[in-house]
């Protein structure tokens, strides 16, 4: 009888240990969410500008998931499973692009896309990650089009991470992204009507 009770007690304790281990193997607190820092634009002096429509920002497919991307080598990338964007990257970039232009270029009227006679701004992001050299890399191109004529301007920015870790990575990406926004605003300021 004692052996039966001891065995039953042992089985019960093992079941409880397995249950606790199962609950604690992937705690929700291990998942971290990140948002790009909100840029602080400096107003750009400009004359009256022609209206512009902002097309949806496009990012490369491998950047379009919820995980932050790290470049491990020239040919290898990893996508984080525990370090995720709070909003889809395309949505964050679109929102910040629009808000930045409204603040940096208060004389820049925005219009609906495909309005006749309105320029269109299209932004495409090819790289938006940290690399194995400790740098945040952002590159791509933006295009301004009007009546079939397209002007395309490439950009590329590298920002050194101040320390290791995902928060430092997101901060460095935010700094690089603000440089892209400033470049676009400066370019638009030279496009007088």
From TrEMBL:
<dbReference type="InterPro" id="IPR005586">
    <property type="entry name" value="ABC_trans_aux"/>
</dbReference>
<protein>
    <recommendedName>
        <fullName>ABC-type transport auxiliary lipoprotein component domain-containing protein</fullName>
    </recommendedName>
</protein>
<keyword id="KW-0732">Signal</keyword>
<feature type="domain" description="ABC-type transport auxiliary lipoprotein component">
    <location>
        <begin position="34"/>
        <end position="185"/>
    </location>
</feature>
<dbReference type="Pfam" id="PF03886">
    <property type="entry name" value="ABC_trans_aux"/>
</dbReference>
<feature type="signal peptide">
    <location>
        <begin position="1"/>
        <end position="21"/>
    </location>
</feature>
């Amino acid at each position: 009888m004692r052996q039966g009770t001891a065995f039953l007690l042992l089985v019960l304790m093992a079941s409880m240990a397995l249950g606790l281990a199962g609950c604690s193997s992937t705690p929700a607190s291990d998942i971290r969410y990140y948002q790009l820092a909100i840029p602080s634009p400096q107003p750009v002096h400009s004359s009256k500008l022609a209206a512009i429509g902002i097309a949806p920002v496009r990012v490369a497919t491998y950047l379009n998931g919820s995980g932050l991307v790290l470049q491990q080598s020239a040919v290898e990338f990893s996508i984080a499973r525990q370090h995720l964007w709070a909003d889809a990257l395309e949505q964050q970039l679109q929102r910040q692009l629009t808000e930045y232009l409204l603040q940096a270029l208060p004389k820049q009227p925005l219009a609906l896309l495909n309005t006749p006679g309105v320029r269109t701004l299209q932004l495409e992001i090819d790289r938006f990650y940290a690399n194995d050299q400790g740098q945040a890399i952002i590159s791509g191109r933006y295009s301004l089009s009007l009546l079939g004529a397209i002007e395309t301007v490439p950009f590329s920015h590298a920002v050194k991470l101040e320390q290791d870790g995902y928060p430092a990575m997101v901060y460095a990406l935010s700094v690089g992204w603000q440089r892209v926004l400033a470049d676009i605003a400066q370019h638009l300021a030279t496009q007088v009507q």
